[in-house]
Amino acid sequence: MSQKRPPPDPLAVLRGHRASVMDVCFHWSKPLLFSGSTDGELRTWDTIQHRTLSSAWVHSAAHGIIAVASGPSLGEDKIISQGRDGTVKLWDIENGALSREPLVTIKTNSYNFCKLSLVKKPTVQVKQVEPFASAVRVPEEQPDNSMGLNDEAHIEGPKHVAVAGARSQRGVQHSRKVL
């Protein structure tokens, strides 16, 4: 019988939240860690110095934060928080500090434990034989909930979708918003 080794000691213990932490997320390119707690507090941590850079109550204390997300598709200085208050909020995090107001707030009608998922809007690029001509084909939802393709010369505007869980397909359609 093999002996189990004890778990390694932690490299650092980050202290500061007054309530239980529900979700954490590393920044994709900076030495930052984001944590969201049940009292609605979102903290930004410096992972090199192991200290809090900023802290703010961004969702109501009665509901708290379900999820936090960061990724290259959002940009260098953006983070998303999802609260059990039924909102998803996009924040600016210039120099690790949270903006005072969210850049975008989306009502999702999702009040449960389903966490958000950040995905790129699906696109298909088709290059034509003629020089300098290209077309972009984008899947779009049809009235019967199937996916189809439409031709557009280019796509402007939002290119990402934040989806928060819902119980029915109808609910998902209403909670899906493009950032």
Describe the structure.
The chain has one helix at residues 169-175, and strands spanning 21-26, 32-37, 41-46, 51-57, 65-69, 78-83, 87-92, 104-107, 117-120, 124-127, 134-141, 147-152, 160-163, 177-178. The protein is globular, with a radius of gyration of 20 Å. 4% of the residues lie in helices and 41% in strands. The chain has a four-stranded antiparallel beta sheet, with no helix packed on it. Strands 5-6-7-8 form a four-stranded antiparallel beta sheet, with no helix packed on it. Strands 9-13-14 form a three-stranded antiparallel beta sheet. It has a domain at 21-110: Beta Barrel (Thrombin, subunit H), CATH 2.40.10.480. It is mainly β and 179 residues long. Pfam families: WD40 (PF00400). WD repeats lie at residues 14-55, 79-101. Keywords: Repeat, WD repeat.
Short description:
The protein is mainly β.
Q: How large a portion of the residues is in β-strands, by DSSP E?
A: 35-45%
Treating each run of at least 4 consecutive H or I residues as one helix, how many helices? 1
Q: What is the CATH topology assignment of the domain at 21-110?
A: Thrombin, subunit H
Quote the average pLDDT.
75
What is the CATH architecture descriptor of the domain at 21-110? Beta Barrel
Q: What gap, in angstroms, lies between the N and C termini?
A: 54 Å
What's the overall geometry?
Answer: globular
| Strand line-up across the major sheet | 1-2-3-4
Tell me the series of helices and strands, N- to C-terminal.
EEEEEEEEEEEEEHE
Detail the poorly predicted runs. Answer: 132-138, 144-155, 166-179
Largest pleated sheet = 4 strands, antiparallel
- Count of distinct strands: 14
CATH class of the domain at 21-110: Mainly Beta
Q: Output the radius of gyration.
A: 20 Å
Pfam family, one: WD40
WD repeats: 14-55, 79-101
Keywords: Repeat, WD repeat
